[in-house]
Amino acid sequence: MKQSLESKTISPLKELLVEELRDLLHAEGQLVKALPKMAKAAHHPKLKDAFTNHLSQTESHVERLKKVFELLGEKAQPKPCKAMMGLVEEGKETIEEGAEKENFTADLSLIVAAQKVEHYEISGYTSVRNLAHQLGEAAVVTLLEQTLNEERTADTMLGQLSMPLMQNEPGEAGKESRSFRTKAQTA
Ligand SMILES: [Fe+2]
Questions:
Q1: pTM score of the predicted model
Q2: Banded pLDDT at 42 (limits 50, 70, 90)
Q3: Ligand 1 midpoint to CA 172 (Å)
Q4: 176 CA to middle of ligand 1, Å?
Q5: Which of 7, 36, 133, 157 measures 20 to 30 Å from 55, CA to CA?
Q6: How remote is the C-alpha of 75 from its chain's centroid?
Q7: Span 163-186, mean pLDDT?
Q8: What distance in angstroms lies between residue 70's CA and the mean position of ligand 1's atoms?
Q9: Any idea which architecture 12-163 has in CATH?
């Protein structure tokens, strides 16, 4: 077991919890910057709305994390989250490549990128919620569960939004309004 220099002992579990919370704080901070770009790139109004709504939720996730640090008596200091940096980088590529695609394919690509982000967050929040539960930090668990539920709902909504878009595939005419397409059909 790692021993601190002073007699003050910090539970290794709490140390891990704080470390993971710092990772999430950095991840959420990156999303606050990335989501407006995703919303701007989205074509379908419902997808635009979904990204815009999730932006305000993400801002509240940052605030909630700060409250969690306060409850734990720890500094809300972000730790660079390389995984989210990679996902955001991929998101940027998706936006750039989307310019060459039909609207519905571009939107589907954005949903794929966004769901990868949601799944990362769901995994991260599940872990910190479990650690906090193990440590008997009930108030922290409540806050983390609120965010976890919002991430799950966002993921479900993105999945639902992808359904009609997938039906835009050429040859499946009539399932979704063609007015959504703006580029000439090449197939
Ligand atoms: Fe979040």
A1: 0.85
A2: very high
A3: 35
A4: 31
A5: 133
A6: 23
A7: 57
A8: 18
A9: Up-down Bundle (1.20)
